[in-house]
Amino acid sequence: MNAYILKILRGFWSLLVGMKVTLKYFFKKPVTVQYPYEKREIAPVWRGILNQLCDAKGVELCDGCQICGRICPVQCISMEVYKDPADNKRKTSSYIVDFGRCMFCGLCVEACPKKCLVHTTDYVLVSYERAGMVLGKDKLVKR
Ligand code: SF4
Ligand code: SF4
């Protein structure tokens, strides 16, 4: 009988210990963020969705050297390159990143000799289909 009462007292004690932790946090300011209605501030060094930069005139800085595509460990960057007879410069007719495969490692950004490939702080990339994660120049090039 004594052992039975002891078990009840131990159970009650462990309940009090648990409640002590609950009470400690009960009166503190909640840390939960009601995403997507509330969003945390993102650090500028965040490696989010890639963007390609242009110069002040809105001309693409990328010259289609393909270094980013070659260095990408998962080969999720592809592009088509041509030589523009107007200025004899190499340009891209398409530049595609499959963000469904991208692991946001930043190697492509580091390697870009033109420094025109950058990570943004944008991380919202949702789609019901994998094809929706594949972005082209219309989404990636920022003028
Ligand atoms: S961040 Fe990494 S995985 Fe993503 S495209 Fe660049 S090199 Fe490839
Ligand atoms: S490394 Fe830079 S300049 Fe070269 S193709 Fe990629 S984005 Fe363009």
What would you note in describing this structure?
This protein has helices at about 1-25, 65-70, 105-110, 135-140, and strands spanning about 50-55, 75-85, 90-100, 115-120, 135, 140. It folds into two domains: about 1-30; about 50-140, Alpha-Beta Plaits (2-Layer Sandwich), CATH 3.30.70. A hairpin with a 4-residue loop joins strand 2 (about 75-85) and strand 3. It has about 140 residues and is an alpha+beta fold. The mean pLDDT is about 95. It has a three-stranded mixed sheet. It has a three-stranded antiparallel sheet with strand order 2-3-5. The chain is elongated, with a radius of gyration of 26 Å. The termini are far apart. Bound molecules: iron/sulfur cluster (SF4) (2 copies). One iron/sulfur cluster (SF4) binds near residues 72, 76, 77, 106 and 107.
Write the layout of secondary structure elements.
Layout: H1 2-26, E1 50-53, H2 67-71, E2 77-84, E3 89-98, H3 107-111, E4 117-119, E5 134-135, H4 137-140, E6 141-142
Parallel strand pairs: 1-6
Antiparallel strand pairs: 1-4, 2-3, 3-5
The structure holds iron/sulfur cluster (SF4) (2 copies).
Residues 52, 62-68, 112, 114, 116-117 line the site of one iron/sulfur cluster.
Task: Give the mean pLDDT.
Answer: 95
Succession of helices and strands? HEHEEHEEHE
**Poorly predicted segments:** none
- Which class best fits the helix and strand makeup? alpha+beta
Can you give me a brief rundown of this structure?
The chain has 143 residues and is of the alpha+beta class. It has 4 helices and 6 strands, in the order αβαββαββαβ.
